Amino acid sequence: MRHPRVTVLIPSHQRPKLLARALRQYVQAGLPVVVADSSAQPMDTAEEFAAVRYLHLPGAPFEEKLQRMAAMLQTPYAVLCADDDLTSTASILRCAAFLDANPDHSGAHGHYVRVVRGPGEAVVEPCYPDTHVARIASGDPAGRLLELSRPYVPLFYAVLRAQVLREAFGSGHEAERFYAASELALGMATAILGKVAVLPTLHTLRDIVPSQDLGGRKNHNLLVVSTAPEYRPVYQRFVDRMTALLGRTAGLDADAARRAVLASVQAFVDGYCLPGGRKNFIQKLPKYCRRAARALLPPLAARARAQAACQRQAALNAYLAPVGPEGRAELAAMLERFRSAPG
Q1: Has residue 343 been placed in a domain?
Q2: Does 111 score more than 50 pLDDT?
Q3: CA geometry: angle 65, 188, 247, nearest 5 deg
Q4: Total-model pTM
Q5: Of 164, 203, 299, 321, whose CB has the highest number of CB atoms within 10 Å?
Q6: Is Chaperone included in the keywords of this UniProt record (predicted)?
Q7: Which residues are CB-contacts of 280 (< 8 A; sequence separation ≥ 6)?
């Protein structure tokens, strides 16, 4: 069955097995897919993935891939999906149906979990624990910009109206290899253009795999980017674009719109980018003692691991309570896909 109202967008780099794993999920569900692949060698899409619109862009920066995919959108909605993650097709379709019924909303998503691989085990845990309290629901676009960071839950993998991606990654989006502005530009464009719903769905299973696309990409956080002289040109372009979008949407003059945008940036910086104070040796001593005891007393170490596992499971159960049996079944199916088709 085809679902032509929402397009899956996948930026990829040097991970053909993971990309194939993701593509099978979306293609089998009948979702249109666009891939922007910056790998040196193209992926073979001739047979199994013939329906995928595949862009081979060797060496292209991440931001350029976003820009190229946004320009190809032909559906009302789109969802960005990392090549190492799996987003529930049931959640994608439910989010799209919600947006159909709620024109005052620009985006919708659900709950996220991640797989953290350690020595001899893979731990499943909540990815964005604040999802259940995040609300972007003000009737005022400037108010929604402040709600975006109170608390901040990334909207990068939400189902969004196509207009959001065009505004965030359209022709005015500079391919600067500057990830922080790309992520926040998408979140801010979403908040400016509408409300965001968190639905009781299992939305995305994130696989914590080291990035293959760091290259020259600048991963400095927004505190650095908003204050360092070398970033001033790109930061000003980012602020100017968000200011113009807010002004057009909310009918604000340029000064008022800029103040609202800067207030939103500052709220994000204050909440998520300020460095924490370093603990001294005395403050760290209890932690060192616990580590030494676990190393010297194997039974104590085993008990500590068991307690930690129980605590993690309790946290996961509480986080997933809204998704119900259907969401848990979706999680089990995606975990099985991870196990049967590892990257």
Answers
A1: no
A2: yes
A3: 115
A4: 0.88
A5: 203
A6: no
A7: none
Find the range with the poorest average confidence among 36-45, 72-81, 105-114, 204-213.
Answer: 204-213
Question: In terms of domains, do 164 and 307 share one?
Answer: no
Range(s) of the domain holding residue 88: 6-272
CB 225 within 8 A of CB 231: yes
Same domain, residue pair 148 and 249: yes
Domain end call among 245, 272, 299: 272
DSSP string, 281-294: HHHHHHHHHHHHHH
Q: Are strands 77-80 and 6-12 parallel, antiparallel or unpaired?
A: parallel
Pick the closest to residue 81 from 201, 202, 206, 219 (CA basis). 206
Instruction: Evaluate whether 103 touches 161 at the Cβ level (below 8 Å).
Output: no
Q: With 90 as the cut, is the pLDDT of residue 102 above it? A: yes
Considering the domain architecture, whether residues 64 and 120 belong to the same structural domain is answered as yes
Cα radius of gyration (the chain)? 21
d(CA 86, CA 33): 14
**Tokens found for residue 240:** 């100017």
- For residues 28 and 160, membership in a common domain is answered with yes
> Residue 217 burial by CB count (10 A; 0-12/13-18/19+): exposed, middle or buried?
middle
Same domain membership, residue 108 and residue 58: yes
* Calpha distance 64→187 (Å, rounded): 18
Is the residue at 66 inside a domain? yes
| pLDDT band at residue 188 under the 50/70/90 scheme | very high
**Omega within 30 of 0 (cis) for the link into 11:** no
In this structure, the answer to whether residues 85 and 234 fall within a common structural domain is yes
What is d(CA 180, CA 184) in angstroms, rounded to the nearest whole number? 6
| 232 lies in the same domain as 185 | yes
